[in-house]
Amino acid sequence: MTDSATAGNLHEVIDLPALNAQLPALKAAYAAGAPFPHIAFEDFLNPDILADAIAEFPASDSEEWKAYAHVNERKFSNTHPETWGPTLQSILGALNSDEFIAFVGELTGIEGMFADPTLEGGGLHQSMRGGYLNVHADFTVHPLHQNWRRRVNILVYFNEDWDPSWGGDLELWSRDMKTCGKKVAPIANRSVIFTTEADTFHGHPEPMTLPEGRARRSLALYYFSVDDHAVVQSTEYRARPSDGNAHGFAIWADKHLLRAFDWSKRHLGVSDDQARKVLDLIDRLKGSRSKG
């Protein structure tokens, strides 16, 4: 549940009445989305809100960013809204409000969804030159709540004047990982909503060629529902057909290392910071060996 104090003024952030008026067509488009149910919205946020959010987006060198640097990803995240500007906090509140989640429930046909106040795996994201996120299916159950089944992802992009030659397109892959069924450029004020299942594979796996000083910036939020029989699967990274044997093995090995951390987090209380330090050490050792 999200009260008015944290939700902000939803209708200043998003024109929800206009979205609700289009629900029959939007529901049909979502269900027909290939390779799995999804939809992309243009001009998602109200223009003034977008401009203020871009201006507030934390600088790349801000100490609040936490690095994720291992075989399967190179990115930074910020899951602490108290360090965000007021506009970004308002967007978070609007998207996590009961009213907006009710709209997403109607759109997707999934009942009983709610927001995750801890922003586990979500929050603000950014990736710089060379950044990437290998193709994966997301974890299916919240690490701290064993009956919270992950159901829907929502992404909002904040990238003005995005050059397609930089890469960074969100790729949606077939459930058998044979083909990329859809690419979505991460341009400013575009939002993507998609169903989260054990085989809804997505990512932006090619290292980006951004100029120095630019970043691929987004907000990622996840909605859950209660399911006492949910099947637990940690993030399932997969190699693409073009990745080759060596890279495919590295993806597989890193996935199993991450799976061990996921188990430790769920059963032993290991924190993200502890896991990240070990992954960073392994990444540095691997880099030093490759140079030797």
Provide structural commentary.
34% of the residues lie in helices and 23% in strands. The protein is of the alpha+beta class. It has one domain (4-291): q2cbj1_9rhob like domain (Jelly Rolls), CATH 2.60.120. Strands 1, 2, 3, 4, 5, 6, 7, 8, 9, 10, 11, 12 and 13 form a 13-stranded antiparallel β-sheet that branches. Helix 5 (47-56) crosses helix 6.
Which regions have little confidence, pLDDT < 50, spanning 5+ residues? 1-8, 288-292
CATH superfamily: q2cbj1_9rhob like domain
Query: Distance N terminus to C terminus?
Result: 54 Å
- Which secondary-structure class do the elements indicate? alpha+beta
Might you state the CATH topology name? Answer: Jelly Rolls
Gyration radius over CA: 19 Å
User: What's the number of structural domains?
Assistant: 1
CATH hierarchy, class: Mainly Beta
Our count of helices gives 9
Order of helices and strands: HHHHEHEEHHEEEEEEEEEEHH
CATH architecture title: Sandwich
Quick one: how many beta strands?
13
Which percent range describes the beta-strand content? 15-25%
Largest sheet: 13 strands, antiparallel
* Average of the residue pLDDT scores: 90
